[in-house]
């Protein structure tokens, strides 16, 4: 596999980053994961927009131009022959002697990209529906910044796995914030889609934005507000959204069945429409 690191395309075994890199020492970096379908990038402009927002919040200067980022993504798709999968991009504040204070702004940032060939459309978990558990959301309070600080969600997903579930939904003050690496939704018995409103409590998902647009086009009712854990058991269906999972039905919460225990019609419809829309608009 060819990867990109700081201006070079290299075999993955030859790519290196300094042990003094602040991404390694302080999790001082941000990332994006873009979906590739049919060899093309889905919602790339939205990923770039969010990358700039994350960088800006952390006062990290962009390492290269947006045109260069697009070129690098396309070069890796070509070189690694990615038809379906993901491209991971990470920017860190770069390498400097270890200090809590930021180094000089002129310190070169680290830019790394790699590809993952992956079956995205054919997903057995999406076919049967995810089993989810709830776990207290103990992440830091700037979940809107896509930092590489992923240890808590990683622990939460391990806990889900050890309890025989697929993922965890994180809960703050009795209300769901989001999944470990996805946004969370319920559909009420009267057909209203409910997902937490945008704030510093959640990542502003690129897929969330597109799927809510699809819901709007289908004239489905949407409420952007926090929903309580108690509302999930009462819901007709539930699902998550993310670049790697698309629209992914949820059929069980903390061992209790949601709806009839099968992926719900609204989640299935949104998944279908979202895939169509992604194919049509990918670049
Ligand atoms: N929420 C969290 C915490 C995430 O890590 C992710 C994706 O990695 C998402 C939501 C979904 O975001 P997107 O739809 O942009 O992939």
Automatic annotation (TrEMBL):
Enzyme Commission number: 2.6.1.42
PROSITE patterns registered for this protein in UniProt: AA_TRANSFER_CLASS_4
Reactions performed catalytically: L-isoleucine + 2-oxoglutarate = (S)-3-methyl-2-oxopentanoate + L-glutamate; L-leucine + 2-oxoglutarate = 4-methyl-2-oxopentanoate + L-glutamate; L-valine + 2-oxoglutarate = 3-methyl-2-oxobutanoate + L-glutamate
Required co-factors: pyridoxal 5'-phosphate
Keywords: Amino-acid biosynthesis, Aminotransferase, Branched-chain amino acid biosynthesis, Pyridoxal phosphate, Transferase
Annotated InterPro entries: Aminotrans_IV, Aminotrans_IV_CS, Aminotransferase-like, BCAT-like_C, BCAT-like_N, Class-IV_PLP-Dep_Aminotrnsfr
GO MF term list: branched-chain-amino-acid transaminase activity
Any one GO biological process: branched-chain amino acid biosynthetic process
Gene Ontology CC terms, in alphabetical order: cytosol
SUPFAM superfamilies for the chain: D-aminoacid aminotransferase-like PLP-dependent enzymes
Pathway noted in the entry: Amino-acid biosynthesis; L-isoleucine biosynthesis; L-isoleucine from 2-oxobutanoate: step 4/4; Amino-acid biosynthesis; L-leucine biosynthesis; L-leucine from 3-methyl-2-oxobutanoate: step 4/4; Amino-acid biosynthesis; L-valine biosynthesis; L-valine from pyruvate: step 4/4
Statement: the UniProt record of this protein carries the keyword Protein transport: no
Primary role: Acts on leucine, isoleucine and valine.
Similarity section: Belongs to the class-IV pyridoxal-phosphate-dependent aminotransferase family.
Protein's name according to its UniProt entry: Probable branched-chain-amino-acid aminotransferase
